[in-house]
């Protein structure tokens, strides 16, 4: 086994030790793809015969895969001798292989061709569907096999966020990385970041800080909330027991496209205005459920009444 000394950003160090699941999520330009690309090349170099697959949810052409990035890493690390790039795959030392696949091209049957693979790396994993994730997990079953995911979060309900962040299985190592964790952040990218911060503050937190998409352009308070966060004005505040609490309520609708029901609890403390707000989506769901139960109950009562009336009518007719 040969070893390579590759400088790694501190934030990714927990991902260097073996783990069944490894995840890195965060905003643009945080070095997620470069880290996993290097780790893959390093692993293939150190362990002869490694079989690895780089996965995207959709991969119509190889240009949409991680192939170029990996080839760049092989060249940058001076490992051109042991690795041989082909049009659709890369041969690695000791008869190993790196291949590139789109999950959408796979069926429950065809995915079985990946069973012997030891490493599966899903980049742009925010687009991975729940179906793809559930097909992939039991397929990657070689001894010491690992699944790696790197992604820019969109919604809490996306399959990868649900699995690696909300449920987080034992044995999963997941790190959050952002632009400030990337020692190699190119100046052009940092310029882009600053431009977004100045011109589009409502998207900034999602694009650059790895937050879920929370605000929509034009949302009333998006700018003010982004500014409050930048200035460190969002945190935990205890209610002052001597001052009155006021509640401001924004009543959400019950339809699928309605806003969440929101309640702001506010105190005026000296010249500060302190607010605590909760989006009561769960509450809204239960209201919708209650509405649907009520609706069903009313229909049942009407239907039962109608049937009873018909039955009585028939009895009267027969009685005659
Ligand atoms: N290990 C590294 N060695 C050299 N350059 C690096 C390394 N890591 C990151 N960089 C530089 O930082 C840039 C951003 O890294 P990378 O593309 O890996 O980020 P990312 O988190 O995958 O971003 P995105 O969300 O845009 O996909 C790269 O284009 C590269 O210039
Ligand atoms: Mg990337």
From TrEMBL:
Domain of life: Bacteria
UniProt KW keywords: Membrane, Transmembrane, Transmembrane helix
Residue ranges constituting the Phage terminase large subunit N-terminal domain according to the UniProt record: 21-189
Signal peptide (UniProt feature, chain positions): none
InterPro entries recorded: P-loop_NTPase (IPR027417), Terminase_L_N (IPR035412), Viral_DNA_packaging_terminase (IPR052380)
Annotated TM spans: 293-314
Transmembrane keyword on record: yes
This protein's name: Phage terminase large subunit
Annotated source species: Bradyrhizobium denitrificans
């Amino acid at each position: 086994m040969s070893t390579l000394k590759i400088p790694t950003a501190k934030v990714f160090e927990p991902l260097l030790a073996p783990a069944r699941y490894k995840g890195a999520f965060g905003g643009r330009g945080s070095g997620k793809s470069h880290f996993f690309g290097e780790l893959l090349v390093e692993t293939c170099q150190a362990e002869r015969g490694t079989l690895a697959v780089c996965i995207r949810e959709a991969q119509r052409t190889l240009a949409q895969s991680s192939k170029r990035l990996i080839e760049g890493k092989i060249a940058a690390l001076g490992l051109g001798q042991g690795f041989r790039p082909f049009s659709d795959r890369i041969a690695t030392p000791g008869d190993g292989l790196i291949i590139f696949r789109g999950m959408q091209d796979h069926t429950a049957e065809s995915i079985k061709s990946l069973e012997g693979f030891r490493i599966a790396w899903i980049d742009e994993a925010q687009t991975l569907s729940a179906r793809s994730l559930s097909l992939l997990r039991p397929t990657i079953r070689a001894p010491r096999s690992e699944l790696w995911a790197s992604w820019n979060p969109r919604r809490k309900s996306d399959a990868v966020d649900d699995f690696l962040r909300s449920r987080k299985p034992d044995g999963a190592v997941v790190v959050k990385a952002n632009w400030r964790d990337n020692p190699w952040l190119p100046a052009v990218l940092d310029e882009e970041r600053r431009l977004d911060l100045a011109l589009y503050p409502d998207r900034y937190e999602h694009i650059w800080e790895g937050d879920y998409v929370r605000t929509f352009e034009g949302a009333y308070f998006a700018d003010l909330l982004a500014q409050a966060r930048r200035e460190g004005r969002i945190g935990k505040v205890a209610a002052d027991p001597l001052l009155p609490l006021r509640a401001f309520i924004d009543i959400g609708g019950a339809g699928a496209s309605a806003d969440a029901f929101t309640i702001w609890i506010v105190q005026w403390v000296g010249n500060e205005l302190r607010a605590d707000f909760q989006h009561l989506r769960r509450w809204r769901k239960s209201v919708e459920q209650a509405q649907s139960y009520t609706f069903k109950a009313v229909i049942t009562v009407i239907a039962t009444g109608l049937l009873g009336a018909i039955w009585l009518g028939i009895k009267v007719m027969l009685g005659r």
